[in-house]
Amino acid sequence: MIYGGGRVGLMKVIADACLAAGGEAVGVIPRFLLEREVGHGALTRLEVVETMHQRKARMAELADGIVALPGGLGTLEELFELWTGGLLGLHDKPIGLLDTGGFYRPLLAFLDRLVAEDFLTREHREHLRVESDPERLLDLLAQPSPRPTAKWTHVERF
User: Fold this and answer.
1) What phi and psi values does residue 25 have, to the nearest 5 degrees?
2) What integer pLDDT is reported at residue 149 of this predicted model?
3) Is residue 58 included in any domain, yes or no?
4) Which end of the chain is less congested by CB atoms within 10 angstroms, N or C?
5) Whole-angstrom Cα distance, residue 148 to residue 121?
6) b or e along 84-119 (b: 16 or more beta carbons within 10 Å of the residue's beta carbon)?
7) Is residue 158 one of the residues assigned to a domain?
8) Whole domain around residue 7: which residue ranges?
């Protein structure tokens, strides 16, 4: 598991569960957060970087795929950056959203509205794989997905 390296909230719970099950948990944390004593001290490996940008880039580099769990602004920011990067062809890693207990239902409705209002193509919307069951989500992410077409290839020019 690759994650932000924290020892608070859901991040800590997931990292601890991964380690307890015999897995490897690798954290990537910026120095300023480590200095605020929020770094997890019992990980397989904790990499310290200087900036949030470096943190996101390093986590993306290390990961085979991306799964967003229920979370706040940081989770959403990372999800959207990686989803957009995949659509732009910057990486080919599968992107998943674990919609536990319907947590992301309002966001998913908004994404569907983006499609309805022509701000997002259906194909690009479906690039984000969504499931409420973790095992089914992992199965979905293991399936090959077609390379999304660039959104500007079908838009009429002004």
Assistant:
1) -125, 115
2) 64
3) yes
4) C
5) 10
6) ebbbeeeeeebbbbbbeeeebeeebeebeeeeeeee
7) no
8) 2-153
